[in-house]
Amino acid sequence: xxxxxxxxxxxxxxxxxxxxxxxxxxxxxxxxxxxxxxxxxxxxxxxxxxxxxxxxxxxxxxxxxxxxxxxxxxxxxxxxxxxxxxxxxxxxxxxxxxxxxxxxxxxxxxxxxxxxxxxxxxxxxxxxxxxxxxxxxxxxxxxxxxxxxxxxxxxxxxxxxxxxxxxxxxxxxxxxxxxxxxxxxxxxxxxxxxxxxxxxxxxxxxxxxxxxxxxxxxxxxxxxxxxxxxxxxxxxxxxxxxxxxxxxxxxxxxxxxxxxxxxxxxxxxxx
Length: 271
Hints:
This protein is an alpha+beta fold. It contains four helices and 17 strands. It starts with 11 loop residues before the first helix and ends with a helix. The relative contact order is 0.15.
């Protein structure tokens, strides 16, 4: 793995922790029916660390002809993340081929305390290879042994597979210098209180072996399986949350519905 602690401009451990924290917050927000109608959308989220607001993220999916672009822009707005001027921007462009989204190019730019980290992943589907290029000109040629995805494309594919009766939630994701197998499992359906009201959600949990870390995401089926909450952390450490605040789906703003308490009251009065 690439060493990210080799910086002289600030304390190495502090910088490493902040980059890891930012990465977890801004990418944890994830993704056979086909993509006959990918719905453009724009979603805004607030990020909390141990219950305190620390940042914001906006995710957009746009279409131009037969090309789709997904963008994620996050920044620290409170606390240490604001002081360090933390930012994390991602973008992927691709097309729908054989009923699924296939990325062509993924880019990521992270900035913390004035220190930049950039990398690009170029997908060559003809030769089944991913070329990863870092801003320091370090290069990696990764052979695809399956349908590799970048972090943003994985979120989109996750949403697609959740429409299957028995979804296969095994993925191969491109990291900064390797291909990483990631597996998930579906948890029990849950009604969740959100800024958009009370939503019936499908929780998905990342499978980890011998780890105290956890990652869970709640997808709202009636909102195209868009994630409305994400949690990430350690059982004996920091707890991070990403909560949806606004959603525009197919150019229409999603109007907040009643909360879960109102739903329970209404349900209790039904014969």
